[in-house]
Amino acid sequence: MSRDSRGTLSRVPPLNVGNHQPLTPLSADQAWRATADRAADTVLFFDFDGTLAPVDDDPTAVQPAPKVLAAIEVLAPAMQRVAIVSARPVDFLRDHFDGLDGVDLYGLYGLEHSHSGGETVTEPAALPWVPTMAELADLARAELPAGALVEFKRLSVALHWRTAPELGPAVERWGREQAERLGLRVQAGRMVLEIKPPVDRDKGMVIGEVVRTAAGAWYFGDDVSDIKAFAALRARAAADPDFVGVCVAVANPETGQEVAEAADLTIDSPAALGDFLTAAAHQLG
Fold first, then answer.
1. DSSP reduced 3-state for 77
2. What is the pLDDT of residues 90-131, one digit of tens each?
3. What's 21's DSSP letter?
4. What pTM does this model have?
5. What is the DSSP secondary structure assignment for residue 219, as one 8-state letter?
6. Domain map of the chain by residue range?
7. CA-CA distance, 215 to 226, in Å (whole number)?
8. What pLDDT does 25 receive?
9. Paired residues of 170 in beta bridges
10. What is the pLDDT, as a whole number, of residue 4?
C-alpha cells in the first residue's frame, strides 16, 4: 500500500472478510470532492481507541486527539450522520463527546446505542448476561496475575496486558478458556482480549444497517474488529456502483499491517487524523 505525503488512496488486495474487491483508487482530495457532492447523504464512522484517541496504558485516561472534536463539530452538520462505533460503553463515549450535536454513539460493538444525545438503548438479548459478565470480572481480578488489567463494561469484560506484555499468552489463554466454559464470545484486539455475550452484534452489522439508504460513507479504524466495518462498506459498494465508500486505517505497531491491508488509505496516528479531518472540514465547507 502506498502511504505518501499526498494521502493517496491506493489499490489493495481483496479483503479477508466478505470477498469483495477494493474500491477504485482515488486521491484523498478526489474522495472528499466526491463526498462533498453527496455530503447530506453520507455517513462518517469512527472507532474511538487508537483512531480518534491514542491508546493509553490506563483506558480510563484516554482523551480524543487534538483537533478531533473541533473537526467533527464542523463536519457533523454537513453530513447525514456522524457515528462513533466503539468497544467502549455509550456512557464513556458520551462523556468524551458531550456537547457535539448530531453524533450517534454505538457502544460495546453495537450492544448499546444512543442517537444524537438521546437515551442509551441496550440490545435486549444481551441484558440477561450482565450478571455473568460481573462474575467473570470478579474471577479475572482474583485469578489473573498482577499486571493484567481487568476492565468491566457491564456487557463485556476486557483483559488488558499492555503494561505487562509478557503476560499476553497466559491472559489470552485464561480468557478463551473462560469464554468457552461460559458460552461467551471473544474479540481479540491490541494487547487486549474482549469477552462478550453470545449475541450477534458487531461493527460490521452496525455499519451495514446504517448505510442501507446512504449514498456514501467513510469508516476510520485501527484494529482487527474494524475490518468487519470495512467489509460492510465493500458490500454496500458492490450492491450499488454509485455508492462512495472509503475505508481508512490508522497506523499502529500491533495490528496496523493487517488493518492497513484491508483499507484504502492509512493515516499515521490519531493526531494526524485530527489534521486530516480539519482539512476535510475546510474542503467540505
1. helix
2. 999 999 987 677 799 999 999 999 998 889 999 999 999 999
3. P
4. 0.88
5. E
6. 24-123+209-284, 125-196
7. 21
8. 57
9. none
10. 38
Backbone angles phi, psi at 43, to 5 degrees: -115, 135
Please name the residue that has the C-alpha cell 454537513. Answer: 78
Q: What does the alpha-carbon distance between residue 258 and residue 262 come to, in Å, rounded to a whole number? A: 7
- Please say whether the beta carbons of 113 and 203 come within 8 A: no
Rounded Cα–Cα distance for residues 181 and 175 (Å): 10
Interacting residues of 169 by C-beta distance below 8 A, sequence separation 6+: none
Cα–Cα distance measured from residue 32 to residue 218, given in angstroms and rounded to the nearest whole number = 10
Q: Which residues are catalytic?
A: 47
d(CA 43, CA 127): 29
Grid cell at residue 114? 444512543
Angle at 151 between CA 205 and CA 104, to 5 degrees: 35
Measure CA 270 to chain center: 13
The set of residues, in sequence order, having a beta carbon less than 8 Å from that of 55 and lying 6+ positions away, is: 49, 62, 162, 190, 252
Distance (Å, whole) CA 94 – CA 100: 9
Ranges of the chain whose pLDDT falls below 50? 1-24
Please give the Cα distance from 58 to 8 (Å, whole number): 34
Q: Which residue has the cell 469464554?
A: 179
Rg (CA), the chain: 18
Check whether domain 125-196 has CATH 3.40.50.720, yes or no: no
- For domain 24-123+209-284, give the CATH superfamily: HAD superfamily/HAD-like (3.40.50.1000)
Please report, for residues 5, 33, 77, 78, 80, the alpha-carbon distance to residue 282 in angstroms, rounded to integers and kept in the order given. 19, 12, 13, 11, 18
